[in-house]
Design goal:
18 helices; mainly alpha; 399 residues; globular
Length: 399
């Protein structure tokens, strides 16, 4: 676990099409743009789908029906991308998304039988009322459970049936996790209900019964256990993924984690830090920053992780991978990462104010401890021994 330094990204030159080719291409119709966006949604390429929808929305030559369709599709894309607040705002402005999904549910006369569980899942995410959201999640689970029971083994379908069953199981787990998140959300009064803790336990038990190794459920379980101050159980839940195997090497397991989406890896690293598993968390974060060295949250968590390692080292403890290192050196690693985070936060106009506030708080304590940034060196000068000694102030607490 060495210091991870920011690297300057090289700009990639794009080759433009010839003027002759571009001039001969007709401007796509709004209908064509929406058809392409729909294809991308099916392929789960939501960022690119959003670009096609944006192109349709800024055009002034489309019909009202096409504009409405584009707004509806935008709501779905925002939901799928996890931008629930934006989707709620979109539905609040025109109610198109809400009405669209309600037409798929009884008692609407054109609602299919049975109704699609996705309609309930989308409405659950859009609902501002927690009780309404929970009802939609449960309705989706009931429909999905019926679908799962109807998927009896068939030797003629093989892998195709397995994939369909896996998708149903994944959606059931996602609905259970959504219910837990509603119960835990501090914006709602449900989190203060005496039954909240036991209800979350029951919901997660149901989810893990469907899929014992589902990463989303395991990370949700870890979060719940941390809120219950059961740190060891939280860590055990996190380490359940990747599934243990007698012939699986550590490199294989690291590759499985590295293949996860960036947001999932960041959430995993944060939970590992909160569980005190600093070595495991820093390994995840080194991989994150190797993938994207402009991640504000990645540099923040890396800086905080090294901070926690330095704090433990200063108190006489040790962390795997930092044996023999002075706590001052580790604290400098922390400072380097935190200052990179602060620089990126400003340059990207990142809206996450709590991260910046915590970074500034940690940097202030490092100032009080006399921990200065690592000296800047040219590549041909070698590493050298340019560490500066910490000044007085050994009694300043690193917490």
């Amino acid at each position: 676990m060495g210091r991870t330094r920011a690297k300057a990204k090289k700009s990639a030159l794009t080759v433009t099409k010839s003027a002759q080719s571009s001039s001969s291409s007709a401007t796509p119709t709004i209908s064509a743009l929406l058809d392409k966006a729909q294809e991308l949604i099916v392929q789960c390429d939501f960022p690119l789908a959003r670009k096609f929808i944006d192109r349709a929305l800024v055009r002034d030559d489309g019909s009202m029906s096409e504009k409405n369709q584009a707004k509806e599709m935008m709501g779905v894309v925002l939901l799928e991308a996890g931008e629930v607040d934006e989707a709620r705002e979109a539905s609040g402005n025109c109610l198109l998304i809400w009405v669209l999904f309600l037409t798929l549910l009884p008692p609407h006369p054109t609602a299919p039988v049975p109704p699609p569980p996705s309609a309930h899942l989308y409405l659950a995410q859009l609902s501002a009322d927690p009780h309404t959201a929970l009802k939609h999640y449960q309705a989706a689970i009931d429909i999905l459970q019926t679908q799962l029971k109807g998927k009896a083994p068939s030797p003629t379908q093989g892998d195709d049936q397995d994939e369909g069953e896996d998708e149903v199981r994944s959606n059931i787990v996602r609905a259970y996790v959504g219910m837990v998140e509603v119960w835990m959300d501090p914006e709602y009064d449900l989190c203060f209900d005496p039954a909240a803790s036991s209800t979350c336990d029951s919901l997660l038990a149901n989810a893990l019964q469907i899929d014992p190794h589902n990463l989303e459920a395991l990370q949700c379980l870890a979060s719940v256990r941390l809120s219950q101050e059961k740190t060891e159980e939280a860590l055990a839940a996190l380490l359940t993924f990747p599934p243990s195997s007698a012939d699986a090497s550590p490199a294989h397991n690291q590759a499985l984690v590295a293949a996860l989406p960036l947001s999932v890896r960041l959430a995993r690293a944060k939970l590992l830090l909160e569980c005190g598993a600093y070595h495991e968390a820093l390994n995840v974060l080194e991989n994150v920053l190797a993938s994207d060295d402009s991640s504000v949250e990645g540099w923040y968590l890396m800086g905080w992780g090294w901070w926690l390692v330095a704090e433990r080292q200063k108190e006489g403890g040790e962390v795997e991978g930092s044996e023999g290192l002075a706590w001052e050196d580790i604290a400098r690693d922390s400072r380097d990462c935190l200052e990179t985070c602060q620089m990126l936060h400003e340059s990207q106009s990142d809206p996450d104010t709590p991260i910046l506030e915590h970074v500034q708080e940690l940097l202030g304590t490092l100032d009080a401890l006399g921990i200065m940034p690592s000296p800047v060196q040219d590549d041909d000068e070698g590493d050298g021994d340019g560490w500066e000694d910490a000044s007085d102030g050994e009694d300043v607490k690193m917490s």
